[in-house]
UniProtKB/TrEMBL annotation:
Keyword DNA repair: no
Involved pathway(s): Carbohydrate metabolism; tricarboxylic acid cycle
Species name: Streptacidiphilus jeojiensis
Similarity annotation: Belongs to the succinate dehydrogenase/fumarate reductase iron-sulfur protein family.
InterPro entries associated with the record: 2Fe-2S_ferredoxin-like_sf, 2Fe-2S_ferredoxin-type, 2Fe2S_fd_BS, 4Fe4S_Fe-S-bd, Beta-grasp_dom_sf, Helical_ferredxn, SDH/FRD_Iron-Sulfur, Succ_DH/fum_Rdtase_Fe-S
Protein known as: Succinate dehydrogenase/fumarate reductase iron-sulfur subunit
A Pfam family that the UniProt record links to this protein: Fer2_3
Residue ranges constituting the 2Fe-2S ferredoxin-type domain according to the UniProt record: 5-92
Cofactor(s), by name: [3Fe-4S] cluster; [2Fe-2S] cluster; [4Fe-4S] cluster
Keywords: 2Fe-2S, 4Fe-4S, Iron, Iron-sulfur, Metal-binding, Oxidoreductase
């Protein structure tokens, strides 16, 4: 079954733009990215859109459909009301380059600010042993396809450009959480306190656990429940741990 549907697609660049109306054929089983491709092929050859896999795995085609952050390649037309125009806009949190393509370099900057896994000095690769429970925990976070829909949705930065320098966003707080929970990470032995850095360098305290990031994650990662809340609990434990408190006093006096 085919039908003609009405679309409103944001066209423009960093200097401004507007929603442009189009009528495009829709066929059974199609996703929004199919429509964008048909639009490029038939009416708007210069329409800019970023995509790669068309299988929900590369994380490139993030945008907003009827105001909701989504992957264009995983949003079936059959899930949208057929009698109303479908609005396709770029992610709101990041600067527009052109049409549906945004500049997501904010996320790469934040990624570089999270120090990577520190291998345990007394073990060689191949000697690492972990409980299955710890492996499972990391594996959930490792399903991330870096679509940045959670980053785009989080209200801390969505309407507050001024918060961007201090807040790394759910995707990268989740990365800090993953490393902090990793039983073999030796960062602390080298003097890197990941809990302290989550609070002081990545803005953990600005997250008020609204779970909006979790709701839009196409990989269904429980970002808030399994990463952010446990990280907050661990950071608070650290703050109120009498030994940590005593240690920091002694260190401060010694400096
Ligand atoms: S739970 Fe935290 S990180 Fe996720 S959207 Fe809410 S404030 Fe942002
Ligand atoms: S955590 Fe989910 S929403 Fe966020 S970047 Fe990864 S896959 Fe996308
Ligand atoms: S094109 Fe790869 S996730 Fe959509």
């Amino acid at each position: 079954m085919s039908y003609q549907a009405n679309f409103r697609v944001w066209r423009g660049d960093s200097s401004g733009g507007s929603l442009e109306p189009y009528q495009v054929e829709v066929n059974e089983g199609e996703v929004v990215l199919d429509i964008v491709h048909r639009l490029q092929a038939t009416q708007a050859p210069d329409l800019a859109v970023r995509w790669n896999c068309k299988a929900g795995k590369c994380g490139s085609c993030s945008a907003e459909v009827n105001g909701r952050p989504r992957l264009l390649c995983m949003t079936r037309m059959s899930t949208l009301p057929a009698d109303e125009p479908v609005t396709i806009t770029p992610m709101r949190t990041f600067p527009v380059l052109r049409d549906l393509v945004t500049d997501v370099s904010f996320n790469y900057t934040k990624a570089r600010e999270v120090p990577s896994f520190v291998p345990p000095p007394d073990l060689k690769p191949g000697q690492y042993r972990m409980q299955q429970e710890d492996v499972n925990r990391s594996q959930e976070f490792r399903k991330c396809i870096e679509c940045f829909l959670c980053q785009n949705t989080c209200h801390v930065v969505r309407d507050h450009e001024e918060n961007k320098p201090a807040f790394s966003g759910p995707r990268f707080l989740m990365r800090v959480a993953e490393l902090d929970m990793h039983p073999l990470d030796a960062a602390a032995e080298g003097g890197l306190d990941r809990k302290r850095s989550a609070q002081e360098e990545h803005g953990l305290g600005m997250c008020n656990i609204t779970k909006c990031c979790t709701e839009v994650c196409p990989e269904h990662i429980k970002i808030t429940d399994n990463a952010l809340i446990p990280l907050k609990e661990r950071a608070v434990d650290r703050k109120y741990d009498p030994l940590v408190w005593l240690g920091s006093k002694i260190l401060r006096r010694a400096n």
